[in-house]
Design brief:
By secondary structure, the protein is mostly helical. The protein has one domain. It has 11 helices and 2 strands; from the N terminus they run H-H-H-H-H-H-H-H-E-E-H-H-H. A two-stranded antiparallel ribbon has the order 1-2. Helix 1 (about 1-20) packs across helix 2.
């Protein structure tokens, strides 16, 4: 328990330090985390006894490439051209390397799992986008911290209220310990915290409440999604990189979906 707490506090301290260090250091951090997450999933697919496949490498690298493009603030045309080039490279690479076709095509599995890993870890690019956006009087670094803290509050409320009052399982096929009571508490905690914390950093009441709602709903879905991945792969943890916490994805699974959902909200509201 002590090791888990210490590693968790160190992780939060590093995240905060890089968030307020500037857009470039934070972007580099996000790219490194995305790359590590890619490797975690790559290795997890090799370790799995339920579903052993080697994902397509060019597609796997879409994740960290997307984060780097966000860090460099590349134009949409540049992004499109690069992604098209990677797609072409993938087609050539997989066609040349395909040695045989079967009813359960190995090539299709490689491309599908490559897209899963690349697309999933590309969500880290939303960290960079949130870090670089200023809304009303709120600075980007505070916005990124606000979204992350709201996710952490969601997880905390869901965990403790679930343990204390949980009676109805939420999704036993994915995560046996999660309960409906914990999920509801997490959602309520996220909205309440979101309203007051968002207003404190300079956001409006309405926008703060909507971001809290996103964190409370999408954040918990993100946690369940990673649980589904582990169940399908037949693994307890994607990796054991962080003592007491599993891997990088175990620490960022909720925020990894909340961040892009928040970016979409901001775009729809023309921020």
């Amino acid at each position: 328990m002590l090791i888990r707490t210490a590693s968790g506090l160190i992780g939060i301290a590093v995240f905060l330090a890089l968030d307020f260090a500037g857009s470039v250091p934070f972007g580099v951090f996000a790219a490194i985390v995305s790359l590590i997450s890619c490797l975690e999933l790559w290795i997890a697919f090799q370790r799995s006894k339920e579903y052993s496949v080697q994902p397509s490498l060019p597609l796997v690298l879409l994740g960290p490439i997307a984060v780097l493009l966000a860090t460099l603030n590349c134009q949409s045309s540049t992004v499109f051209n690069l992604l098209a080039a990677i797609g072409l490279l993938t087609v050539i690479f997989e066609t040349v390397s395909a040695k045989r076709l079967t009813a359960r095509s190995l090539m299709i599995d490689r491309i599908g799992t490559g897209l899963l890993i690349g697309g999933y870890t590309a969500c880290y690019s939303a960290f960079v986008i949130l870090r670089n956006v200023d809304i009303l009087s709120a600075n980007g670094a505070w916005i990124m911290l606000f979204v992350a803290a709201t996710v952490w509050i969601t997880d905390t409320f869901a965990y403790f209220f679930g343990r204390a009052f949980g009676a109805h399982p939420l999704a036993t096929h994915l995560s046996p310990k999660k309960t409906v009571e914990g999920a509801v508490a997490g959602l309520i905690g996220a909205v309440i915290f979101g309203v007051f914390a968002g207003k404190w950093i300079g956001l409006g009441w309405g926008l703060s409440a909507m971001i809290g709602l996103i964190a409370g709903v999408v954040g918990q879905i993100g946690d369940l999604f990673e649980s589904a991945l582990k169940r399908n792969l037949g693994l307890k943890d994607i990796s054991k990189l962080i003592p007491g916490h599993g891997g990088i994805l175990d620490r960022f699974d909720s925020l990894l979906l909340t961040a892009p959902a928040t970016v979409i909200l901001l775009r729809l509201l023309h921020y």
